[in-house]
Amino acid sequence: MSIDESTAARVAKLARIKVEPDRLPALASEFNTILGFIEQLGEVDVEGVAPMTSVTPQRLKRRVDEVTDGSQQEAVLANAPDAREGFFAVPKVVE
């Protein structure tokens, strides 16, 4: 796959990055270099290699999975413009 200048301009626009027209050839070249590296990674044989989360072996800390209400109802509703009976009160929008 090859990226041309118009595709590079479209990617920059989608990423909301302002790129001057004279920089588009260099950007397209950088994209093509990145795609080349990705193609090289696809050629690597990873059969039998376990996935890892870190370069050093370590156990992830886990917490007990408990359902709670958070005990913060008053704090959450403190900034509400209108709260009634422990809930946010909003205007009716559907008749």
From TrEMBL:
<dbReference type="InterPro" id="IPR036113">
    <property type="entry name" value="Asp/Glu-ADT_sf_sub_c"/>
</dbReference>
<protein>
    <recommendedName>
        <fullName>Aspartyl/glutamyl-tRNA(Asn/Gln) amidotransferase subunit C</fullName>
        <ecNumber>6.3.5.-</ecNumber>
    </recommendedName>
</protein>
<keyword id="KW-0547">Nucleotide-binding</keyword>
<keyword id="KW-0648">Protein biosynthesis</keyword>
<comment type="subunit">
    <text>Heterotrimer of A, B and C subunits.</text>
</comment>
<dbReference type="InterPro" id="IPR003837">
    <property type="entry name" value="GatC"/>
</dbReference>
<dbReference type="Pfam" id="PF02686">
    <property type="entry name" value="GatC"/>
</dbReference>
<comment type="function">
    <text>Allows the formation of correctly charged Asn-tRNA(Asn) or Gln-tRNA(Gln) through the transamidation of misacylated Asp-tRNA(Asn) or Glu-tRNA(Gln) in organisms which lack either or both of asparaginyl-tRNA or glutaminyl-tRNA synthetases. The reaction takes place in the presence of glutamine and ATP through an activated phospho-Asp-tRNA(Asn) or phospho-Glu-tRNA(Gln).</text>
</comment>
<keyword id="KW-0067">ATP-binding</keyword>
<comment type="similarity">
    <text>Belongs to the GatC family.</text>
</comment>
<keyword id="KW-0436">Ligase</keyword>
